[in-house]
Each structure stands twice: as C-alpha cells, then as structure tokens.
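[job 0412] stage=fold_complex status=start
inputs:
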Amino acid sequence: MIDVQNITKRYGHHTAIDQVTFSVAKGEVLAFLGPNGAGKTTTMRILTCFMPATEGSARVAGFDCTEQPLEVKRQIGYLPETPPVYQELTVTEYLTFVGRLRGITGPKLSSALDQSIGRLELGSVRHRLIGNLSRGYRQRVGLAQALLHDPPVLILDEPTVGLDPKQIIEIRELIRSLAGSHSVILSTHILPEATAVCQRVVIINKGHIVAEDTPEQLSARLRQSEKVSITLKTCPPDCEMKLRAIPGILNVLPGQAGGSFLIECELGRDLRDEIARVAVLSQWGLLELRTVSMTLEDVFLRLTRHEDHLSEPAEATVSASAERTDA
Amino acid sequence: MTPVQAVIAKELRGYFVSPIVYVVGAVFLLIFGLLSYLYVGFAGAQAIQLMQMQGGMAQINLNDLVFRNLFASMRIVLVIILPILTMRLFAEERKLRTFEFLMTSPIRITDIVVGKFVSVFLIYLGLVALTTLVPTVLMLFSDFDWNPIWTGYLGMVLLGALFLSVGVFASALTENQIVAAFVSFGMLLTIWLIAGLGNLFGDTTAGRIISYFSYMEHYDRLLRGLIDTSDLVYFGSGLALMLFLTHRVVESTRWK
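[job 0412] stage=fold_complex status=done
writing structure:
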C-alpha cells in the first residue's frame, strides 16, 4: 500500500532523512519510533505530499507522491502534529468543510459525519465551537477529520498526544480496529503504544532507519543473554559467589535495592529452577524471582543511543533495566 | 458543493465569526457617510455663494461636486482598510498550522487561492452595496446623472478587487498578520506613487508607460464616467497577476 524507496530530504545543508526505505502492506499498522528531530514528521509530510523528497520515490496505493499528488491525497487521511482545526467553526461545521473538500456531498456526507462523530465520541460537543474545546477534544476532532472519508491509508502523527488515559486506550482500540481494512502509519514517543497497537516498528534516528521488525523480534534480536532478577531477604557475602558457581550463569550484578541481584544467563537457558534451589538450600530467604525481558524501551534506547556499539554488551542498558524491574 | 465553494463558505463563516468584518465594515461605512456629508455640505455652501452672486436658483453639478470627489477620496480609505480584511487569509492558516491540512487535502492550490479571494471580494461587494444608500437618499432631494455614479461604483469595485488581490498575495508571504497587512499597505502605496513618478516624465512615452502601471489614471477615467477597455484590461490583468503570484508563493512552500 505504501512503498518508500530511498527517500532523502535535505533542508539546505541539513539532511533531515537519508535514504529511508520501508513499505507498509494493506491492513498493516506500522509505528514510527524515534527521538525528536529524527525525521518522523518529515517522512510523513513527504508521504502526504505536503512536500516532495529531494531524492527517491514514495508511492501510496500505487500513485506517485510527486507525479500524482491529488490522487495520493485522496487515498490518505492525515493527522498532523498539531490538530488542524479551525477555532471559529463548530465540530459539525468543520467536519462538513473537510468532507466537502474531499468531494463528499449530500446524504453521503451526513452519514460519514455521523459515523466519525460516533467513532470518536464527539456527539456531546458536535455543536460547540472548536476554539472552546479542550486539547483532548481537539485531538479527537483532528482524528475524526482524518477518518471522515474512510481512507485506505491513515497517517497519524502522534495521535494520542493530549488525551487522558481512558481516551488513549479508546484511541488505541480504534486504531487496532482499523487494522486489516486500513494501512496505518503512526509516529509516537510512547513506546508501549507501539507494542500495543502495531504489528511492525520502524526505529528512526538522525534520519536513518536503524531497525525495522515486530516489537518482539526487535527485543529478541538485541538480547545477548537471558536475565533473571532475584530479591533475597538475607544475603551473606558469599551468595554472589555461590550464584556464579551455577553452570550457565554468566554474570551477577547487584541491583538497586539491597538484597536484589540481576543475573545474566546463557542465551536460551532457563536457570530459574536452579537458582531457586540454591537460594532455598542456602536459606537466603527468597522473596522474588523473575525473568527480565528487554522492553521496547531498552531496544529503543540501545538503538538510538548506542547505535555504534551494538555488539558490545551495554552496561548502561543492563542497569537501566534493573532499575525498572525494581521499580 | 465544489471544493471552491466549500472554501468560500468556510472563509465567509470565519469572517463573520471574527470581529474583523464588523469593525472594518463600520469604519468603512462611517468614513463613506462622513465624506458624503462633507461634500454635500460643501456643495451646498457653493450653491449659496452662487445664488448670492447670480441671484435666483443656482445650477450645481452634484456629480462633479459630490460623487467624483467622494469616489476619489475613497482610494486612500481602501488602501488603508482592505489590507486589514485580507491579512488573515493565509497568514492565519500558517500560524494555526491548518495550512498543512489544506495542502494535504485533495484540492488544487488554484481552488484555495480563488476561494479565499472570492470570499473577501464578496464581503467587499456587500460593503460597497451598502454605500449606495447615499446616492439613493440624495436622489430624493436633487437631480443628478446616475451613469457616472455607476461607472464610479464600477471603478471602486475594480480598484477594490485589485487591492484585495494584492492583500491576498501579501498574506501568503508570511505567517504574521501584521506583517501581511503592512506589506500590502506598502505595495499599494508604492503603486500609487508610481503615478507621481510618471507625472515627472510628463507626456512622454516613458511617462505614459510608467503612469499606466499605477491604478490612479485608470480609476480617474472611470470616475469621469469613461469606460475604456484598456482600463478594464489593466484591472483584470493586475488581479490575475496577483492571484497567479499568490499561487506560486503557496506552491513554493512545498519546496522550502
């Protein structure tokens, strides 16, 4: 549905994105992850024909973004970073205007209007001026605008910004429900969102794609060891040594809280059973024992911060994840 | 409803929700009324003088004494007031980030530019229509020729359309409304002053060419009751040029 080949965008001497290639299949939801200024919005603006790429080609639903911008725009529902709402219009007037711009008229328009107002639960504010609505409502009006003509492709730039937790869950459910029939690209800073909603994640940093895979695959790929966190009631000085003596254990690192350790084991081996036995036999008072999986957050930090040292075991990441598991 | 009509409807709604139209309209009508009153009073004073000198009823020409002066004075009023009407058209869209939405909607840039221009032109037409109250009331008390008044109105409409197109262009240049108003104000005054430059050259080819670029002589001819095709061509082509330049400026934002 979306096919991006080697696109590069330069602003003067500054290269915003460099040789970016990816594609989105029909019905797939793809998350764009990256720190601020990574090139997420630039990529989305190229896809929506707001501006052309300096090099490379982007195609949406078979139409070229530079050659056939009007066709591309018809296939796309786009929510920019700032919800593009006119404060002097009411919600209904605004959505009517949007529908007319997209050539929807008559009874079709009113049914599309009712549908998108219903989907985003805007019924209670439909006759209010957008200027008087809260940030969360404006964001939802922006989303209603993108969904109004039921486009095959949705491009959402940080769709859940400014929403309260309940609304965030509702919007995520909405996006999940769109998967299958719509191709969706969304950018986000909120990593659990990507895991919750998307089938595939593209991590972009400084204009380059640094990783592209499913969230699970990504964390699996970057994992160099299995990690187990244990918490002990009493820990005599020799406990670290005894733990190291278990075959298959690579390293034992002290955790943040007293009595907690982060144990690194060989990849593919589950040593929880063994560790528990040693702890119980030694009467350390085992309070907690669990595996620590690498979160997408770790993957993200690792890829964007330690891009050059992917092969080295990053101590910072290990202690960072230990910190999180303790918390 | 076509996309252009949708843009026009939305812009009109935007104008009437904001105080701009009411304030600008009130000032415009107030000044028009005040100027009419002054010129009618002035004509009355002249009539009394003539009667004292000649005795009996004096024949004075209201067309010359009131309407021509009135329309001529409206030039400066339009130069000051119309940029205020047009300044928000594109600048506001950029400021509020709705510009990106417009540009990613499946409509042509021409539709956007034409829609915005037509909406503000309709508002201007409405204001001009309200001013016809002055000659209508005067008609009850005196006799005058309506034809030069109609050409005067034609002149005011054409001049206004040209000014509005300059304002639309200036608004597309920036995201700051004050800057947009000031740029169009500056451009309109400069084109006005070109007439002065033309006069310096006198009745030479260079002088005539330079004067042609100013709206002054074209407007003056219409006020005198003269409909000359070259004047219509001047206003039409000026308007088309400004809207074309606006289109280019809007289009160029894609390449920045």
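[job 0412] summary: The longest strand of chain A covers residues 14-24.
[job 0412] exit 0
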